[in-house]
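A quick aside before the break. I want you to see a complete sequence-to-structure record at least once, exactly as it would be stored in a machine-readable document. Don't worry about memorizing anything.
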Amino acid sequence: LPHDAARMVDPAALRPFAARDLPADALAPGMQTLSADWGEGLRWAPAGWRADAIAWRTDHWAPWGGAPSYADLWDDSRAAAGAPRAMLLGAGLHLEHIGALPEGALWAAHGDDAGAAEVWATIEAWCAPRAARIRAGGGAAALADGSAAAALIDARGAVETAQGGVPLGFAAPAEGAVAQMLGLARPAAAPAATLAAATEFTAFIMARDGGMADWSCAEALMDPEALMSMPPLPPETAAHAARRKAVAARVFGVRS
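That is the input. The structure line, written in tokens, reads:
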């Protein structure tokens, strides 16, 4: 992620990419602006992105009133599934949406240890009594075997599940989908002998014919250009990560 590369305070810790290192069509429109660039050279290359949204078994359930909500996943009248961290983020966005948290509180808490305690206490208090029928992870599999009526999964997982014959609906939540950007960075201290292999791997993983740079599934939810206007998640402090994992452990019985 960009903020992982940004934690390298000294730009010299990362080896810049040259234009010849990257396939000419590897970056989707607008993606170049997300790259972390300190001084000279591109030091973080966006290689792909994913957006989590809500999929549901149309033979089991349908969202009421149009777009589904993260709250639908926490409704104990039906079984649901999703990765713990994504489920908790979705719950936080829903709580902002209904005014139980101030707008922007969830994002701000990632870099504000003082405000994080109240935010996560509110999320935990809302989630804990609703978690009994939620499967932690394995959303696509739970939809496929019918053990969940709805799940928070990425676009590719939804497409592959539907192609397997599962009657599926899929849409961004009313509160907005959470997008994750993935990229590549190379340590400057890596042996020179590995540079050629690293360059070859970069070209492979960013190739549109099978690499990470296949935007087609995610574009069903969001134009890559729209991603540029979304507020980025601030770098997560160690204290915030510990608090988030502790809440996940108490709510789901697992560490996230």
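Two observations worth writing down. Residues 179 and 227 are 8 Å apart (CA to CA). The two ends are 17 Å apart (CA to CA). We'll return to this after the break.
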